[in-house]
Request: fold
Amino acid sequence: MKFLNEYRDPELAQKYLDEIHKTATKNWTIMEVCGGQTHSLVKNGILSLLPEKIRMVHGPGCPVCVTPLHLIDKAVHLATEKNAILCSFGDMLRVPGSEKSLLEAKAEGADVRILYSPLEAVKIAQENPNKQVVFFAVGFETTAPANALSVIHAQRAGLTNYSILASQVLVPPAMEAVINDDENIIQAFLAAGHVCTIMGLSEYEPLVEKYKIPMVVTGFEPIDLLQGILMTVRQLEKGEYKLENQYSRVVKPEGNPEAQKVIKQVFEVSHREWRGIGEIPLSGYAVKPEFADFDANIKFDIQLEQVKECPDCIAGQVLKGLKKPNECSQFAKKCTPINPLGAPMVSSEGACAAYYHFSPPTPEGEESTILAEVGGQIHD
Reply:
């Protein structure tokens, strides 16, 4: 497939790997921010092919994983106690709340629906004027334009039965929180290409300058990641720190101005709690007061007691890059995708799920087999 297969070319992957091995002379710890990048690294066997000097750690780039427990409880409450039609993306349905997940609420009879776009939820509201319809709006800057647009469409259509439960989080503040953590071990970042497609590059330049840390915006295919790692290692070895854009075929410096305009129309920056991490100042979007009629938090005035996270779950340490998923004592034991203790074992972008599905021990001598499959196994 043109514009895809060329980024899964085993021969080119080998060239980048050889260059990474030649370039790395010191030990370096690099965080890939996005869960999509994590899955690609794990699924394609890239982690086992990198030199031992390069340690990749996995960041908080999974919006489903960082959606706080109390917001999931609110979504369940809306579906079960307020009799609302609760809509969201598929991953959110299986994330455990304090008592049950949305999927369990659905099994008990609640009207919970999996959608691919919030605009579908607006249509459902139009077709069901006597029912309240709530879209659980989860995501980073990438999903914010569509979620904002759903509010604009609902307002233009004069709908009074549509609202969103917003859990929109922002990547740069999370990266800064990771850098400022007392246990921080990160020396460079692979930044999330899809976020930069919307927001551009300007928000990352101050972080690079302030913390003197290399940052490379990358895509999600094996070649993207290998090239991004090589660019990062070259900076580290030279003692440089700058913002580079590996994903230039998609990411423009200014991002997408029209998408940014829609976001600013509906949302304002606010403090936001991150599951497993805690509150990060100015790290999320909240619905603006002028759109309060479409803010489920205000519309339903939901007041629920906040419940503590499962003490056996180390998701916070995984999301901050302090531990790998398989370093958890409950990994693949008490915590599995069927019975998850935390969101990273559920989400399609969760690091724990990536390790569970794609990271079996690799016997000696199989590295070349993994590399040969870079171009093929991802199609499975």
In short: The chain is about 40% helix and 20% strand. Residues 361-380 have pLDDT under 50 and may be disordered.
